[in-house]
From TrEMBL:
Skewed-composition ranges (Basic residues): 452-470
Name used for this protein in its record: Tyrosinase
Annotated Tyrosinase copper-binding domain residues: 150-167, 291-302
PANTHER family: TYROSINASE FAMILY MEMBER, TYROSINASE-LIKE PROTEIN TYR-1-RELATED
Organism: Mytilus galloprovincialis
Assigned keywords, A-Z: Copper, Metal-binding, Oxidoreductase, Signal
């Protein structure tokens, strides 16, 4: 009787308050166009690109009101632009002397770096219009620029001009400051990039959650949300191989989106992977410049692009690719959006920038260029012969974030994680008993450009065997969300829904739970792969990040990401699965817009920490059977009954486990509308 009553809402005409919507045309087209490259680039980068493309092209549907900018700010931006032009004029008379040198931030002296950091802090402190100078500049990346400065030929040009403005703003405060760059190859080459000094207190501050130490501690974004990062959950620093692939091409059409978006020559893909790696504010295109890391990262992309330009065999100033595949807003003669300098998109391809304003000092990559020369760089941490950043611990004593977090009024940051002050370096080096899997899609074998300066290829340098048997996983970090929704950070604007994750054991893994048969160890299997009833020999089709690992314990994360379609908001959380098991199942709780506020339509996606995407399934309430069917992942949440969401995590838990007592303590999957299947075999996206 109880069961029947319970089912009635599902079989009546209004069968659910959560329904599947069709995937919007723009998103679907983008995903299916790129589906073929899931064997080359991690699918979460494809997802990142396509979601951003969708959000950029439809931003007016979400921004209420659209990006506002006051006259003072416009005047200031214009004055910066004039300043830049003024310099140009002066410099023409005595050019070499005045050209600034942009350097890798780890090659600056402490004094130089501190000047830069102080100037950035000062930008944040100086008011302009209704905001401050930093945020005024950050907001230029939003609105129309979402579409006209990304995924196309205007990507390197618009950002080049943007960096120039940012640098001019810094120089207005301190004329000796030049924008440094963040060569993330130096961090890729580090055994564990999360340990890099770049995230030290004297550089950018920590990457775990709300930025609560370093020069930008407790910074707020322009909408009031805290500056936050979720470092190393997914994504990747840029591999030396990736840069060499880019530099092996000669035409912009070969390295820029949309033409090169599908392959490993795509500059923007590598750039995206760093945004994804840092996470938090850096993840949303509209919020990314809130983090000063943005400008250092983009300066490196500009550095790479400049190296590419130097190698071009055609005129770099006119090699602006444009056809019907490129967004119309990126037409060469269109004025750059939001920068107020009056430059056209193609003007960003001018040689003036590097002839007159700045040049780049070569970033040290080979050991002989960095050995014993810079305190923050070392030689051969993971790859022999290559420079890497140093670990934070080697330079500064690690201060526990627990101390700082008190000022947020939060008693304790981590309730279940390792106690940082007792944390020991040896305990960090993972057990070397289990086996590990290194994914190498981005560094696959390929003929190296003969014009490249490096004589030997990276792949010929064997990485340090001893260290490769250790584990680097992201199991220590949690996930911080901004709770920003339509410009206001507040958990009350969100509600939680359960999402079921069904994960299959990936191939190629071998864990330390050995099988003993007839007194001997059976090679090549562990207890969980030793079975005759299931078959795990099929290779995953999907590419994964090369610098990502499965923990020897089998613990792995699957992320669930929410992107608002009828609202402006993003939410990500994860659940933990056991990669040893043939099938492992778990439930993630993620937040979507509270339907009481207004239309709550979200695109929900799931991917693992190796960048591989899972397929969405929706509950089919029409039938009596408890079945899931493949679906779009776009859900429309309404206030109609039955209520399949919770105002908080406790309420969602009650949806799943009704009383939490005795025999009722079994999960009620009928209340889980959305599920993801992660086998990484099939194409993750259906047809549209
Ligand atoms: C962390 O460990 C240290 C020493 O091992 C101890 O003094 C401290 O109370 C611990 N802190 C927490 C929050 O458990
Ligand atoms: C750290 O590890 C070393 C070596 O295993 C051990 O001797 C030391 O007691 C550990 N320290 C702490 C604080 O656990
Ligand atoms: C295992 O999978 C492979 C490839 O899908 C197939 O050819 C083979 O027959 C399967 N073996 C068993 C025992 O199912
Ligand atoms: C819901 O959206 C409509 C139009 O988009 C708007 O007029 C209304 O104020 C919104 N309501 C709330 C509660 O935000
Ligand atoms: C979402 O669902 C509600 C209730 O079923 C419906 O009125 C509304 O039109 C739907 N929105 C969209 C965009 O489909």
């Amino acid at each position: 009787m109880k069961v029947v009553l319970y089912l009635i809402p599902f079989v009546s005409s209004v069968f659910s308050m959560m329904t599947e919507n069709d995937m919007p045309e723009i998103l679907c087209k983008c995903l299916s166009e790129k589906a073929g490259s899931i064997t080359i680039i991690p699918a979460d980068l494809i997802l990142y690109t396509c979601v951003n493309k969708y959000l950029a092209e439809t931003w007016l549907e979400r921004y209420q009101p659209p990006r506002r900018i006051d006259p003072d700010t416009i005047n200031w931006l214009r004055s910066l632009g004039r300043k830049v032009r003024g310099q140009e004029y002066n410099i023409r008379t005595k050019r070499q002397a005045a050209r600034r040198v942009r350097r890798e931030i780890r090659t600056l002296t402490d004094a130089q770096r501190n000047r830069f950091i102080r100037a950035v802090q000062e930008l944040k402190d100086r008011r302009i219009g209704s905001t401050n100078r930093y945020d005024a500049l950050a907001s230029a990346h939003d609105g129309r620029a979402l579409g006209s400065a990304h995924s196309g030929p205007n990507f390197p040009s618009w950002h080049r001009e943007y960096l120039k403005l940012f640098e001019a703003a810094l120089q207005e405060i301190d004329d000796r400051v030049t924008l440094p760059f963040f060569d993330s190859r130096l961090d890729y080459n580090l055994y564990d990039p999360r340990e890099s000094n770049f995230w030290g207190e004297n550089f950018m501050g920590d990457h775990r959650g709300v930025v609560s130490n370093g020069p930008f501690r407790l910074w707020r974004q322009r909408n009031g949300a805290y500056l936050e990062r979720n470092g190393g959950n997914s994504g990747s620093m840029i591999s030396p191989r990736g840069i060499r692939d880019v530099l092996s091409r000669r035409r912009n059409i070969d390295i820029l989106s949309p033409w090169a978006a599908r392959g490993r020559y795509g500059l923007e893909n590598y750039h995206n992977a760093v945004h994804v790696w840092v996470g938090g504010s850096m993840l949303g295109v509209n919020t990314a410049p809130s983090d000063p890391v943005f400008f250092l990262h983009h300066c490196f992309i500009d550095y790479v692009w400049e190296q590419f330009r130097q190698r071009q065999t055609v005129d770099s100033e006119t090699d602006y690719p444009f056809d019907q595949r490129a967004p119309p807003s990126q037409a060469p003669n269109r004025i750059m959006d939001n920068l107020e300098t009056g430059k056209r998109n193609i003007d960003g391809y001018s040689n003036d920038y590097t002839d007159q304003y700045y040049r780049y000092s070569r970033s040290p990559t080979l050991c002989r260029q960095c050995r014993n020369r810079y305190p923050y760089l070392r030689c051969g941490d993971w790859f022999r012969g290559l420079c890497s950043a140093t670990n934070r611990a080697r330079i500064t004593t690690f201060r526990s974030p627990i101390k700082n977090i008190k000022s947020l009024g939060i008693k304790k940051q981590f309730s279940t994680t390792i106690n940082d002050s007792s944390r020991n370096k040896t305990s960090r080096k993972r057990r070397s008993t289990g086996d590990w899997l290194v994914y190498e899609p981005l560094i696959e074998e390929e003929i190296v450009s003969k014009t490249g300066r490096t004589k030997r290829s990276i792949s010929s340098r064997r990485s340090n065997q001893k260290k490769r048997t250790s584990h680097i996983t992201n199991m220590d970090s949690s996930m911080q969300n901004s709770f920003l929704l339509d410009g206001e950070p507040d958990i009350k604007r969100w509600v939680f829904i359960p999402v079921k994750i069904v994960h299959r054991r990936p191939s190629g893994l071998l864990f330390g739970t050995k099988v003993i048969k007839n007194k001997n160890i059976v090679d090549g299997v562990d207890v969980y792969s030793y079975n005759k009833y299931m078959n795990y020999t099929g290779e995953e089709q999907q590419a994964a990040y090369s610098h990502s690992f499965t923990s020897g314990s089998g613990a792995d994360k699957v992320y669930v990401q929410v992107d608002g379609m009828s609202y402006n908001g993003k939410y990500i959380d994860y659940t933990i699965v056991d990669s040893r098991l043939p099938v492992s199942e778990s439930v993630a709780f993620v937040a979507v817009k509270n339907p009481k506020l207004n239309s709550s339509i979200s695109y929900i996606s799931a991917y693992d920490s190796h960048g591989r995407i899972c397929r969405p399934y929706c509950h089919s309430y029409r039938s009596y059977s408890n079945q899931y069917k493949t679906c779009s992942g776009v859900i429309n949440l309404t206030e109609e009954k039955p209520k399949l969401y919770g105002e908080d995590v406790g309420e969602v838990t009650r949806l799943l486990y009704k009383s939490g007592k005795g025999k009722d303590f079994s999960r009620s999957d009928k209340n889980i509308f959305l599920s993801f299947y992660c086998d990484f075999h099939e194409m993750p996206w259906g047809k549209c």
